[in-house]
Write a structure and sequence with these properties.
Blueprint lengths: L1 H24 L7 E7 L1 E17 L2 E5 L6 E4 L6 E2 L4 E5 L2 H24 L8 H37 L5 H36 L6 H23 L2 E3 L4 E5 L13 E6 L3 E7 L1 H4 L7 E5 L6 E14 L10 E8 L11 E18 L4 E2 L5 E7 L2 E6 L1 E5 L3 E6 L6 E4 L11 E3 L2
Amino acid sequence: MNIIKKKSFRIFGLLAVAAMAAFYIFGRGGGGVEVKAMTASKSDITRTVFMSGTVEPVSSETISVQQGLKVLKVHVKENEEVEPGQIIAELDSTDLRLSLEKTSLSLEQVEDELGTLKNTSISSDQAILKNALDRAKEDYNKAVADASKGAQDLAAYKTLLEEGAISKAEYDNRASAQMSLEAYRNTALLNYEDATLRYSQFVNSSSDGVQGLDRQRQSILLDMELLQNSINDTIIKSNISGRLVDLPLDEGKAVPAGAEVIIHGSEGLEFVAFVTQEESLLIAEDQKAIVQVPGSGRSYEGRVSFVGKLAKVEPSSGSRTPRVEVRILLGDADDKIIPGFDADAVVSTDSKAGVLSVKTEAVRYDESGSAFVYIVKAGKAVKTAVELGISDGYAVEIKSGLNENDQIILNPQMEISDGTEVSILE
């Protein structure tokens, strides 16, 4: 009796294994490869581009302040609003005015000599002229070296400007300083040429010193212009409307090295990011955007206000891939966000309503790059070419090739090809 029971169990087990094998081989319950499918239907699709960047003021002004001068009066406090032409601070110009007066006296002396020389012949001691020539040469050589180094620094600033590492105002301030160095070099050159000319005239027993004195006069006039500009700069004024965000000046104290007064314009804030060239081709000015600032607790609406026309490597990105600058003007910024904050933005680059679409996972591409999907017809997969439209990353528009309510295979397996028998999983 036990032998019969054991044989029965063995036969039952073999039958069960055979049944399972038959189920796997002959369709796993439906006569073909089991697939997941969806119904092609109409929906709204919005194509977007995501980017990360920073919040910056739409406009700003950076004023470099002359180092070492005493601060006489500060008229505005940090975070206060200023208007164009408003005086922010006053510096002590006493020493500069004294230098201007001395230079003015030198001008009078040269002009007197020039007037006298036009009527009489004046001789000078050769040793004095040679000494003056040597001093002028040394001064000129130093001015040339300073201007040359300044030009190298300006070139570096230009590279930083092109890479977006500094503002246009910072570059302009560097350029202004370079102009002063070049002006001083030109002045030194005039002095050197004048000393050379005067010495040469003496050696050659020339009595015509009018030209040399006239050049000296021009040199003095240039010095006076530089001094007057420096005096004017002791009155620090705003050139834009906005908020004073940095004022490193204290009344009664000397201006520290590298001091800069910074004003953020009243035009508001903007989001700045650098995107790939593929993304930049989708973005255009006036497109709508949503900007999110971590920690602010809300989203901010905006519009694309600028798309760069130059792809360049952005140093802060850590990538060597050229990127394009994009700016988004924030229309409803509040006090919760300030310049320098990190932020994320989503730009809506295109939108279509009620278009035939399928999930992107249903689309495959052949060797030529043409898109296709598999339609389920009469239990078989039918390879069907499709023309794609816009996509939001989840769904893609089907311009042609499908009809509404077609059953489309999702994520078709490698073993599926045109004509493969399939069964749809419920």
